[in-house]
Amino acid sequence: RSHFGSSSGLSAMSSSLNPACLAVGAAAGAVATVLVLRLVQRQRPLSDYIRQHAVRPDARHPARTRTSYPQTLPITSIEHTSLEVLDEEKARCFYVGLLGFKEIVRPDFDTDGYWLQGFGIKVHVAKAPTAGRVRYRREEAARREAKGWEGLPTGDHLAFLTDNLHGCEKILQEAAIPHKKVGPGPQGAVQIFFFDPDGNAIEVGDCAPPVDSKHCAVR
């Protein structure tokens, strides 16, 4: 008969264990109990508790608190922006078919994706490589879809210019793409905001001020 079948069996097994092992087990059980009680009291997900109390390598990174730097990096130009996506084909369709980017040669990386170029910038699209990243991207896309409109026009976004804003709005309407029209703002611009398939915000505006002015040029 198994030791697990009776209280005497359990007692016998416990007496055969090293006292130090029993002490460690008891301590671990006490810690786990306290953790569970705290989570129940706070009614918060375990993942939230772990994120708050985890020691992160970047928690004391100087960039979080600095207000000046002794010198600038010797950067020569901007090269590209990169987007991690759930479906690289849908992303390609959006940026090529709707926004007008062109596909360019991409090296043979381990992850699927596309390199795109247009309007003086490059966009690298890469499929989320792991189950963890896929889960994160899905949660992020859902959050942006639910709350993203509240952050516009000040939230993170990629902005373009057009000389036919009415035409852009008509195309978005025909494609059944939700969008938000803003303006004219203090600079004089009227802008349309919408989201790509992964929840990244896009702006299309009818003007932008010159670098030495607060206002768009007279049109």
Tell me what the structure shows.
With 219 residues, the chain is an alpha/beta fold. The chain is built from 6 helices and 8 strands; from the N terminus they run H-H-H-E-H-E-E-E-H-E-H-E-E-E. Strand 2 (102-104) and strand 3 (113-118) form a beta hairpin.
Write the layout of secondary structure elements.
Blueprint: H1 7-15, H2 19-42, H3 46-53, E1 81-85, H4 88-98, E2 102-104, E3 113-118, E4 121-127, H5 131-147, E5 158-161, H6 165-174, E6 180-182, E7 191-195, E8 201-205
What are the main properties of this structure?
219 residues, alpha/beta, 4-stranded mixed sheet, globular, disordered N terminus
**Which secondary-structure class do the elements indicate?**
alpha/beta
Q: What's the total helix number?
A: 6
Largest sheet: 4 strands, mixed
Mean pLDDT: 78
How much strand? Answer: 15-25%
- Oligomeric assembly: single chain
Overall outline: globular
From the N-terminal CA to the C-terminal CA, the straight-line distance is 92 Å
Order of helices and strands: HHHEHEEEHEHEEE
Helix content: 25-40%
Number of beta strands: 8
Q: Indicate the radius of gyration in whole angstroms.
A: 27 Å
Sheet with the most strands: spatial strand order: 1-4-3-2
Q: Any low-confidence stretches, pLDDT <50, length ≥5?
A: 1-17, 20-24, 31-37, 39-44
Give me a quick take on this structure.
The protein has 219 residues and is α/β, with parallel strands linked by helices. The chain has helices spanning 7-15, 19-42, 46-53, 88-98, 131-147, 165-174; strands spanning 81-85, 102-104, 113-118, 121-127, 158-161, 180-182, 191-195, 201-205.
